[in-house]
Write a structure and sequence with these properties.
The structure holds two protein chains of two kinds. By secondary structure, chain A is an alpha/beta fold. Chain A is built from nine helices and ten strands. Chain B has a single domain, classed as Orthogonal Bundle (ABC transporter involved in vitamin B12 uptake, BtuC), CATH 1.10.3470. In chain B, helix 11 crosses helix 13.
Chain lengths: 239, 291
């Protein structure tokens, strides 16, 4: 059970980015977070994870989400990462083992094996020694997914993982994510391509400054709810 | 030149003060080289510039209070770092402006104090460094601080790597990202303060940035970047000190210029992505396609 109670985020400049979000979801599987640009999708994730100052309460299986940190994987939008950073593909995947290692311990043979196996799963075993900037957008996104696999997290948050990547990478990633979901992992994906929602997600959360609707795709992903989410009342396009 | 080198080596064997200057410079070259890697990867080059300039009033006040300049300098270095993040977070002023405001203010205050209190502090030495006059206390201080800093980098390499590359993922997974940031700021301040004697306030930033930036051009691995940067720092210190002693030049200035020459060589000539090779590659490709 994933529960959000009265989550609000106010930016330092006084702008209310997210207002009193209340959600209670069980059997999450892969859950899409859908909404217009600037509607607060990323802010929602950041608020939930405590990455941005937020009011409210978030629990997973009855335990405050902060206690799940080691079992939480977050992949931000890939454009936020420095692709010139001196790190190889394999090392980048190894970062996923760090949270479980604790202080003073370095990744050893076992961790390396895990990382190599994850790279095989995403189809990039050949490229393990490349510097991350030498990959295509899709390949790099797959590396980040491999890092998530290695982290063996129960809660996985992905911010726009399918933006600017090739069809093959997208197919590999969604297959792996579906696999992880079957293993009982809980995956949240910020997503804006409405055409694939039914194929990709079991649940959706529709957000525009607050939660408009949430629940299974079947029940929640309706024309009515979409209209409420994307309609801007004073926008002449919609009147 | 060979004669000068022989004299230098003879002097080095003969005079303990020269040995001390030599070992101190090399230790600092190594430590600054390693710390600098994290500084440039985090985009904190300007921040280190600010902290180095900001320690000056601390040096003057330490003299007034008759305590070791180390304490005053450290306090003011940390004050500057805090001041900058305060201005940045509490207003819409951007980081570079915040840095500009704080560091010029601190530097001005420092110069005012040093000139007005008629201290025996030699402003020239503080600004540009003179490692040859380093005292035993300062030398030991440098060694201890460098040792501690290197130990911290060794112990927390994993955390430093992760929080530098992907601080958001690190924070989401429970790493104390803020604490590590502060730790790095403190390291930066400490290393700046002990570098005062060797390269001076104005130039310490170069010892932090230039070897690291050179190493950044040469490698794809963070650990190799640290080692290469440390090596370049040590080489710059050695060659710099040689010229400083032989031609009676301020040590900091020559060390920094040596590091810069190494940077330029790598920038233009390194086989992987040097400007020179890239342009020849382009010309070759161009000719190929013209055919």
């Amino acid at each position: 059970m994933f529960e959000v109670e009265d989550l609000s985020v106010v930016y330092p400049n006084g702008l209310q980015a997210l207002k009193e979000v209340n959600i209670s979801l069980s059997d999450i599987g892969i859950c899409g977070i859908i909404g217009p640009n600037g509607g607060g999708k990323t802010t929602f994730i950041k608020g939930v994870l405590g990455l941005t100052p937020a009011k409210g309460k978030v629990t997973f299986r009855g335990i405050p989400i902060k206690k799940w940190a080691k079992k939480t994987a977050y992949v931000e939008q890939k454009r936020d990462l420095d692709l010139d950073f001196p790190i190889s593909v394999l090392q980048c995947v190894l970062l996923g083992t760090y949270p479980a290692l604790g202080f003073f311990k370095r990744p050893g043979k076992q961790e390396k094996k895990q990382a190599e196996k994850a790279l095989e799963q995403v189809g990039l075993a050949d490229l393990k020694n490349r510097q991350i900037g030498e990959l295509s957008g899709g390949q790099f996104q797959r590396v980040l997914i491999a890092r998530t696999i290695v982290q063996n997290a129960d809660l996985i948050f992905l911010d726009e993982p399918f933006v600017g990547i090739d069809v093959k990478s997208e197919a590999i990633i969604i297959d792996l994510l579906k696999n992880l979901a079957e293993q009982g992992k809980n995956i949240f994906i910020v997503h804006h391509d409405l055409s694939k929602v039914r194929r990709y997600f079991k649940n959706v959360i529709l957000i525009n400054k607050t939660v408009i609707a949430y629940g299974t795709v079947k029940k929640t992903y309706t024309k009515e709810n979409l209209k409420n989410t994307f309609e801007v009342l004073d926008n002449p396009l919609f009147s | 030149m060979i004669e000068a080198l022989q004299t230098f080596i003879n002097d080095l064997v003969e005079y303990p003060f020269l040995q001390h200057a030599f070992s101190t410079s090399i230790i600092l070259g190594i430590t600054c080289g390693m710390v600098g890697c994290f500084i440039i990867l985090r985009g904190l080059a300007l921040m280190s510039d600010a902290i180095s300039h900001a320690v000056l009033p601390g040096v003057a006040i330490s003299y007034i209070l008759k305590i070791s300049y180390f304490y005053g300098a450290v306090v003011f270095g940390i004050l500057a770092a805090l001041g900058i993040s305060f201005v940045k977070h509490k207003s819409k002023i951007k980081t570079d402006s915040a840095i500009g405001i704080v560091f010029s203010a601190f530097l001005a205050l420092g110069i005012l104090l040093v000139t007005k209190i008629q201290s025996p502090i030699n402003l020239n030495n503080i600004l540009f460094g003179n490692v040859l006059t380093i005292t035993t206390t300062d030398r030991i201080l440098t060694e201890v601080v460098s040792g501690v800093v290197l130990l911290i980098i060794y112990l927390f390499f994993k955390e430093l790597q992760l929080t530098t590359f992907d601080p958001v993922m690190a924070k989401a997974s429970g790493f104390p990202v803020k604490l590590i940031n502060y730790l790095l700021m403190i390291i930066l301040t400490l290393i700046t303060v002990v570098s005062l004697q060797t390269v001076g306030v104005i130039l310490v930033v170069s010892l932090l940035i230039t070897p690291a930036a050179t190493a950044f051009l040469l490698t794809k691995k963070l650990s190799s970047m640290l080692w290469i940067s440390a090596l370049i720092g040590a080489i710059s210190a050695t060659i710099g000190l040689f010229f400083s002693v032989t031609y009676n030049l301020p040590s900091g200035v020559v060390i920094v210029l040596t590091a810069t020459v190494i940077f330029l060589l790598v920038f233009f000539l390194n086989p992987k992505n040097g400007i020179f090779w890239n342009s020849t590659k382009r010309t070759k490709a161009h000719r190929f396609y013209q055919k």
